[in-house]
From TrEMBL:
InterPro entries listed in its UniProt record: ASHA1/2-like_C, START-like_dom_sf
CDD domains noted in UniProt: SRPBCC_CalC_Aha1-like (cd07814)
Organism: Nocardia thailandica
Chain coiled-coil ranges: none
Top-rank taxon, per record: Bacteria
Protein name (record): SRPBCC domain-containing protein
Amino acid sequence: MSDKDFTRTITVDRTPDQAWAAINDVRGWWSRTADGGSGTVGDSYVFDVPGVHHCRMTTVEAEPGRRLVWRVSDAFLAFVDDTAEWEGTTVEFDLTPRPGGTEIRFTHVGLAPRAECYEVCADAWNGFVTDSLRGLLETGAGAPMTGTEQIDVAALRRAG
């Protein structure tokens, strides 16, 4: 793992097992339309924003309450030249007990500043991890995509 891979760390007033459960509730913090499951090695789900972003996340490591890793496949990003830029990257969650809660370290290995999608994707992950996942854990309500968003691909291309 490179220190240049996109990483965010949050600490929440929940146990590692509660954090683990929330992370695996991808419909509760990332996308209500995610299709499939997470949490057990071999599980997979599809994240899809038609015409904008598509990927399959397959669980390749699962240590309940400690670590979860998804491998990205079938990746498509409409707003960059290399539409398969996420292909073969991994998304990692490392959970560490802390006094009064759990530290969650999120790392998208392969999403580094040299990536064409870095600005747009880092901004999105930042919102989903630091706001939506935190909200799901702290209040019971995340802010996942609903599937009704209108996304301007040309604007995303300019932003990146």
